[in-house]
Specification:
The protein has 14 helices and 38 strands. It has about 725 residues and is α+β, with helices and mostly antiparallel strands. α7 crosses α8. One of its GO terms (molecular function) is serine-type endopeptidase activity.
Length: about 725
């Protein structure tokens, strides 16, 4: 069946964009209907799970409330009012109260709230300037630990304890920048540092609930000048016993730059005595959840070797405060605990639970904290575990599979029985055609084996329509030391492209995690050629299928995937068109502007002034003269991980060499656009990817995007949210 015939069949199945067809296809605009579940927390009795239910509320915002669901069955019920964006549900040790962070009544500024679990109104306990992170109850339930990021002037004025709700910090004009890393996420740091605080719960509750909290119940634990008189951020605070808190801070001596090291000192802080002691050091990228401790002084923390850190696997080390001994219970795994994975002590204080990537899944393991036994796989084949919580006898997870974007599940501590507790998207999925991906293993010419997946359009049936063919979209993941599965954050994107009539292929080439450290470091000094070799081997393997049109292959990817998209169209004529997203295009420009500049030092072993020619030749923009494929470039205005300056250089090169191109920039967005950007932007990005490919495909009756009205085919161009007619 030729392209024209298939195009007619696609039009018959789907109808013109913006209409309802006989087949309920998944569309980009469906993002507004998809519910996400996050942060499961088991109650102390293992009877209930609290979790955050997040949904798009409008084009620019989300609604997020806390729900609870019984472990023994029954429907989930909303637990907090829909007055703000709620997060961080935390049961008190006796289970009588639930603390959480929320923006209700405070605009975008999170505060600590408390609600009785047997019913009653929530009470606001704080009014602080810097928001709430790392919320955690003390073991006896009398105090709450939290961190916030504040500027020196806010601390001096006491706004880190109590602030007028109408207070807004002025944007510095001009900005005077002294730090190496002066912006991150979507914000300029502007002198703010993260500090640690303790809240006395009963003292906070004793005030009149109608009054603004006065801050007298809050104790500031950390000083502006760090232990070596160097300002530092204090990260990942956690309780040990009722009088002990552990946290980490950059290990920078006087005169050293804390932004230019990955070494951290770990501290023990006596809340009553005020004594502070550094007891060990680690290296890596510590953030919230990087430390967890038992009441008897065993401190688990993330450790990544200092040499070539970005390519190495993150382990969990356990330091015993009584003996001073350290062990690495995860060492036998040959899997990393980094990249959106986590770990947690079980309530018995004897067993650690960790999640890792593992051959296209994100799975959970248990291991004795004393490393007396090898890790045991608990659960996870074919799923993506995003968050989990360990109870006395159970483990609650949020995970997604190929047929749903994520729900709450519970299993025994050994993983013997698994029960699904929620079905938050059942109504949406009931009338949508969701296709199961096919696992594909393939080899390069030198015998290197890689894992990938192939997703076909919902209407595909090889037996019913022999000879029918479809164009292919190749997706390349970011990282580069990351991995893809059949679910997770890409579920909607993959299913949407398949529903538009594309076969979708994605894989984990060399450099990916989940296959051992040797494979992760295989791309050292050479991101482009090695990765492209693996991706093209996968493309050729799937193009052997009769239903794949090997003359219509498209490519896209974000972050490192954006780098690889640009590299691919410069080093191969395999792709008819490309969409490069939030990419790195010039390693020198990236090194000078990113908050992750050490990625260049570790992966390439050099700096721009030590070997500028090498870094230039390893950059996609150096080869822009070899690009012929029409290439759309998507970027975010406030992406400070892969700043837009290198994208601008790449687009300028495409323009100068006569390549069909367009740059689309999203205001207010950062590097997480595809995962948690404003709902309208998430939809627009996905529609633009599909529209760009449609314009160069004989299977879609669309002109190239550059020949159409700028809003044609996009929901943003129609007030009713439906795409304009093609």
């Amino acid at each position: 069946m030729n392209a024209a015939t298939t195009a007619c069949r696609l039009a018959e199945l789907y109808g013109p964009a913006g209409t309802t067809s006989s087949m309920n296809r998944i569309e980009a605009v469906d993002y507004h209907e998809i519910t996400h579940v996050e942060e499961p927390r088991l109650s102390p009795s293992d009877e209930r799970v609290a979790f955050v239910r997040r949904t798009p509320a409008a084009d620019e915002s989300y609604a997020a409330s806390i729900y609870t669901v019984p472990v023994g069955g029954d429907e989930a019920a909303q637990f907090t009012a829909s007055d703000g964006v709620d997060s961080q549900p935390r049961w008190s040790p006796d289970g009588d109260r639930l603390a959480f962070a929320s923006t209700r009544g405070e605009g975008d500024r999170e505060q600590v709230w408390l609600v009785p679990t047997d019913g009653g109104e929530a009470r606001r306990l704080t009014s602080v300037v810097g928001g709430i992170d790392d919320l955690e109850w003390s073991p006896n339930g009398s105090r709450l630990l939290f961190s916030q990021r504040v500027a020196p002037e806010d601390r001096e004025a006491g706004r880190d304890r109590t602030v007028d709700p109408d207070y807004e910090r002025e944007t510095p004009d001009p900005r005077v920048i002294d730090r190496t890393i002066y912006r991150a996420g979507t914000e300029y740091i502007d002198g703010r540092r993260r500090h640690v605080y303790v809240l006395e719960v009963e003292a906070a509750l004793s005030r009149d609930p109608e009054d603004n909290p006065d801050g007298t119940a809050i104790t500031r634990l950390t000083d502006e000048d760090g232990p070596a008189d160097v300002p530092v951020d204090y990260v990942s605070p956690t309780w040990g016993d009722d009088e002990t808190i552990y946290y980490a801070a950059k290990a920078a001596a006087a005169g050293e730059d804390p932004d230019d090291t990955l070494a951290y000192d770990l501290y023990e802080h006596g809340t009553d005595s005020g004594e502070i002691e550094a007891f060990t050091q680690t290296t890596g990228w510590l953030e919230s959840g990087s430390i967890d401790a038992t009441a008897d002084g065993r401190v688990a923390f993330e450790f990544t070797p200092e040499d070539r850190t970005s390519m190495r696997q993150t382990e969990i080390r356990v330091h015993d405060r009584e003996t001073g001994e350290e062990r690495t219970p995860t060492e036998p795994l040959d899997r990393t605990v980094g990249h959106r994975c986590g770990f947690e002590w079980a309530p018995d204080g004897e067993t650690l639970y960790v999640t890792t990537p593992d051959e296209g899944s994100r799975v959970c393991w248990s291991v004795p904290g004393d490393a007396s036994e090898d890790p045991t796989r608990v659960y996870g084949d074919g799923v993506t575990i995003a968050d989990f919580s360990v109870g006395e006898n159970a483990v609650a997870y949020v995970y997604s599979e190929w047929d749903h974007p994520g729900d709450v599940f519970v299993t025994t501590r050994g993983g013997n029985e698994v029960h699904r507790l929620t079905r938050v998207n059942d109504d949406y999925l009931a009338d949508r055609a969701v296709r199961q991906p096919e696992e594909v293993w393939f080899k390069t010419d030198d015998g290197t084996e890689s894992q990938g997946w192939l997703l076909t359009p919902p209407e595909f049936d090889a037996d019913a329509s022999p000879g029918e063919r479809y164009p292919l979209v190749v997706e390349v993941h970011g990282g580069p030391h990351a991995h893809w599965t059949t679910a997770g954050t890409m579920w909607h994107e993959f299913q949407t492209l398949a529903a538009r009539g594309y076969v979708v292929f994605w894989c984990n080439p060399r450099g990916s995690t989940g296959y051992g450290e040797d494979r992760a470091i295989a791309i050292e000094g050479d991101w482009g050629e090695i990765t492209l070799t693996d991706v093209l081997a996968g493309v050729e393997t799937v193009c052997e299928r009769d239903f794949v049109d090997d003359g219509e292959v498209f490519v896209t990817g974000g972050s490192f995937g954006g780098f690889m998209t640009a590299w691919a169209v410069a080093h191969s004529d395999r792709f008819e068109a490309a969409v490069s997203q939030r990419g790195v295009y010039d390693l020198t420009g990236f090194y000078g502007s990113s908050d992750a500049f050490t990625l260049v030092e570790d992966d390439f072993g050099t700096t721009p002034w030590d070997d500028p020619d090498f870094l230039w030749n390893q950059s996609p923009v150096a080869h822009v003269a070899d690009v012929d494929a029409p290439t759309l470039v998507l970027h975010s205005d406030q992406d400070y991980r892969t700043p837009a300056n290198t994208a601008e250089l790449f687009v300028r090169g495409l323009q100068k060499h006569g390549v069909e191109t367009r740059l689309v920039r999203y205001p207010r967005e950062g590097h997480e656009l595809s995962r948690s950007g404003e709902p309208a932007h998430v939809v627009d990005r996905l529609e633009r990817i599909a529209r760009w490919f449609d314009g160069y495909s004989a299977y879609h009756e669309s002109s190239p995007a550059l020949e159409r009205d700028r809003d044609a085919g996009l929901s943003s161009g129609d007030e009713d949210g439906d795409r304009n007619e093609e």
